Amino acid sequence: MKKIMPWVRSLLVFALIAVIVFGNAHEALARRGGGRIGGGSFRAPTRSVPVSPSRGGGGYYGGGYSSGGGFFFLPFFFGGGGFGGSIFTFLILAAVAGAVLQAFRGAGSSDSEGITGLDSKVTVAKIQVGLLASARELQNDLTRLAMDSDTSSSEGLSLILKETVLSLVRHPEYWVYVSSAKETTKFALAEQKFNGLVMSERSKLNAEVLSNKNGRILQSSKAAGTLPSSGDLSLEDPSEYIVITLMAAVAGDTLGKLPEIRSSEQLKQTLSALGSVTQDQLLAIEVLWEPQSTDYTLTSDEVLTVYPDLVRI
């Protein structure tokens, strides 16, 4: 029995150490666990090839419209006289007018915010906001969006963008840190740029305890629900924070013209611009927030270590 007792003591010591180590690891996982909502599509638009209508027989072809919207003409041949000349002059003027109209149409389409081809402009943008831990409502809002949103449809993704922007705009008193980045690129490269940005930000999370991506919801046992409305949240330690990261790929270069965010006013301006993005313009969106659980917050050291680009506003 005396020989067995040392082994029993050793096993108990090892078991106690394992409980402490793995228990703390589990706690750390929950503390740094984040949430994720997103989806999108970078499908290029399809274009149909116009088919020229067949023409039957006849003595001549008159003026008309081409499939591209411009005028074409073939001269009429009449047997002399001023009447034939005036018709010929009229056709020339009609052709010139059609060419001018087509030029205006082309200029208008080149400045549009839609995707018309692989060379169309797309802006990939990121806004990251560090908020006081008192902003529990934002964690609750994002958790509800993750549980209820349809991330497989363009309507659902547009709703996520607008609701996330609205939650941030409603509480400027919680804004402490901010970081922004943007790049305007061709549509052919936009998906690669966006995915690279998303992967870079996701890698900063220890775990994603709640995720709703392209219609698929994944929830860890450590994911928290919404916080009850009762209770005084104003007594939070002001050195504790929540970080929300909003990334979007938007057709056009309007967002690319916004300044880098260095003040509360610039943050408000950029959020307003994002909130006005239409459903047709939005190609993809990703929202990350940390911690996901309302039971945890990030310390100032954690925020500045994990998110070194954040600056105080």
Q: What is the gist of this entry?
A:
By secondary structure, the protein is of the alpha+beta class.
Features:
313 residues; alpha+beta; 2 domains; nine-stranded mixed beta sheet; two-stranded antiparallel ribbon; 7 helices; DUF1517
Task: Describe it.
By secondary structure, the chain is of the alpha+beta class. The protein has two domains: 197 residues, no CATH class; 47 residues. The longest helix has 29 residues. Strands 1, 4, 5, 6, 7, 8, 9, 10 and 11 form a nine-stranded mixed beta sheet that branches. The chain has a two-stranded antiparallel sheet with strand order 2-3. The radius of gyration is 30 Å and the shape is elongated. A hairpin with a 5-residue loop joins β2 and β3. α3 runs antiparallel to α4 and α4 runs antiparallel to α6. It contains seven helices and eleven strands. Keywords: Membrane, Transmembrane, Transmembrane helix. This is DUF1517 domain-containing protein.
Question: Could you tell me the number of beta strands?
Answer: 11
Briefly note the structural class of the backbone.
alpha+beta
Order of helices and strands: HEEEHEHHEHEEEHEEHE
Assembly classification: single chain
Mean pLDDT: 78
**Main sheet record:** 9 strands, mixed
**Gyration radius, to the nearest Å?**
30 Å
End-to-end C-alpha gap: 68 Å
Q: Helix count, per DSSP?
A: 7
Shape: elongated
